[in-house]
Amino acid sequence: MIKLFRNIRKKLLSEGKTANYLKYAIGEIVLVVIGILIALQINNWNEHRKELQKESVIVKELYKELQQNLKATTKHRQQIEEINQEVLFLLNISDDSLKLLTNEDLNQHIFNSSLISPFTPFNQKLKRILAIENFGFSHSKTLVNELQDYNNSIEGISSINLSARDVFKNRMVPFLSENLSLKNLMHEIYPEKITKNDSIVDVGPIIKSMAFENLYADLFASYTSYIFALERNIELTKNLITHIEKAYPSVISTK
Question: Which of 126, 111, 132, 79 is CA-nearest to residue 189?
């Protein structure tokens, strides 16, 4: 092709057709420019296609992680709610109800009120996305901001969880160790492994003490705030899942 163009130029020059030669040269330049532009457009298209493929993988991973987190956070909220119900039961227990419960029953309720566990979110994909500078979703202008709010919610929950566990570790455990038989508390859960302490500890008066009341009022406030934060996170998670399903139906349909 290049040889053909060269021969045409030589022929035009040899025939003295300068004007025609200039027109041809300009036309040849235009063709070259058009070819370059087409090549650039194809390259841009290929790069855009690769970016969309990469985005599809990210969306699939994020969608799966959100579903995992929704399941785990919902389960954790139920656990905290059950613990808080035990706290509320002991905090509001009446004298008449207290007479109907044995020390073993009360130990069981106290143990159940102290089962706070760590909060372990699934957020590795989320952190990776937020760490990519200037990352955006082609089908949604607001998704990144919503993910940031979601991440802030997770960090808030983790902070509240640590605070609740600190109350348990620094206040509840010392109080129970000083006033009750921890061995008997553990015996209620592991009767085949831990023998009962035969020393009688009357649990009722301890539960009705001001120190116990203040401790459990603090626990109730802490757990109630924790449950509220978990519920907000669950709502954010559901909204994000719905958002992704609407913005990326073709991607989600292949999950």
Answer: 111
